[in-house]
């Protein structure tokens, strides 16, 4: 019983991922998945860094040199495009994707069951679940988001490999698709072309967008994005080629087998707590950036956009809840003007810089922040 049950449930995921590849691929591709989107639009780094106000249009960000040895120059299309207009007339019909609905339901039922198993888990297993949570989250925040979507700093090859492996543990679609979708989110925020358009309500922005067919404009705009920097990154492309295998290994097998093999935890607890529960928690923490941080909170930097400063999201998504700041200054590697405060991801990147594995972190100057606060803020800014 102890071995059979997790084996059966695990085999469900294996079947879905490996044996039904066409449909599963459809799931990933059509849902443009994953979560997270949080973070903002990019402005011209040159202009903003030197004191010129960033604004909607000027924002074709040119990053000189990306990711260490990869790409000497790349344009990051993550700046809001105010020239886009939603098509008039009736919206396309909402088409449910039942496979995704079932998979998400099964995952969350398993996660809820995992909650009840927490008292049965040994302390090392709970600590391991926390480690897996943090690794998964960093693979998204420091990796797919701040490095690959926004190019806010440069990372050495070892760090990029580490972040790619961690990203597979988070299973939020491969880095390439995640970054593409995130750039579309910044460029067309709160419109039909935004994958998780928050103007369609909390549920849609949180998870609903993964359960229905994409709006045609999301697909169209995503195809037109400039993504040469991602194509040129061998780590990104390698992860994409071997994504299904890496997810099976990092998101399911490793979290489950480590507690069982090293300290004798039952496979049952290992499967439901550090694996399914941890996976669902990271997903929801990421989704909250798209939902809660686009609806609730202050807008001290730009009251004209939806993204907000949300402390709860900042805490759960290890530093990604300063969302009004992030959408206003998307090229800032810290996604906040407050440095390490509630921002584990920034601590991690700084530590990588200390070790010599990362460098060239982009920041917004104090004077630019102050200028922006006065010009477009809602007056709620606090200085610390
Ligand atoms: Zn956002
Ligand atoms: Zn972002």
Oligomer: single chain
Shape designation: globular
H/I helix tally: 17
Count up the domains: 1
**Class derived from helix and strand content:** mainly alpha
Poorly predicted spans: 15-74
Mean pLDDT level: 84
| Residues in helix, % | 40-55%
Task: List the strand order in the largest sheet.
Answer: 1-2
Order of helices and strands: HHHEEHHEHHHHHHHHHHHEH
Using only CA atoms, what is the Rg?
20 Å
| Biggest sheet layout | 2 strands, antiparallel
Organism: Crenichthys baileyi
GO cellular component, one term: endoplasmic reticulum membrane
Enzyme class: oxidoreductase
Catalytic activity: octadecanoyl-CoA + 2 Fe(II)-[cytochrome b5] + O2 + 2 H(+) = (9Z)-octadecenoyl-CoA + 2 Fe(III)-[cytochrome b5] + 2 H2O
Write up what this structure looks like:
The protein has helices spanning 4-19, 21-31, 45-49, 98-117, 123-149, 157-170, 175-187, 202-206, 216-224, 228-231, 234-241, 243-263, 267-290, 311-316, 323-328, 344-354, 366-376, and strands at residues 61-64, 73-76, 154-155, 358-359. The protein is mainly alpha-helical and 384 residues long. The chain has one domain (4-376). A two-stranded antiparallel ribbon has the order 1-2. It has a two-stranded antiparallel sheet with strand order 3-4. It starts with a helix and ends in an 8-residue tail after the last helix. The model is unreliable at 15-74 (pLDDT under 50). One zinc ion (ZN) binds at residues 37-39, 185, 294, 307, 323, 327.
Topology:
Blueprint: H1 4-19, H2 21-31, H3 45-49, E1 61-64, E2 73-76, H4 98-117, H5 123-149, E3 154-155, H6 157-170, H7 175-187, H8 202-206, H9 216-224, H10 228-231, H11 234-241, H12 243-263, H13 267-290, H14 311-316, H15 323-328, H16 344-354, E4 358-359, H17 366-376
Antiparallel strand pairs: 1-2, 3-4
Residues 38-40, 145, 149-150, 182, 186, 326, 330 line the site of one zinc ion.
Family: Belongs to the fatty acid desaturase type 1 family.
Transmembrane segments: 101-120, 126-148, 243-262, 268-289
Protein name: stearoyl-CoA 9-desaturase
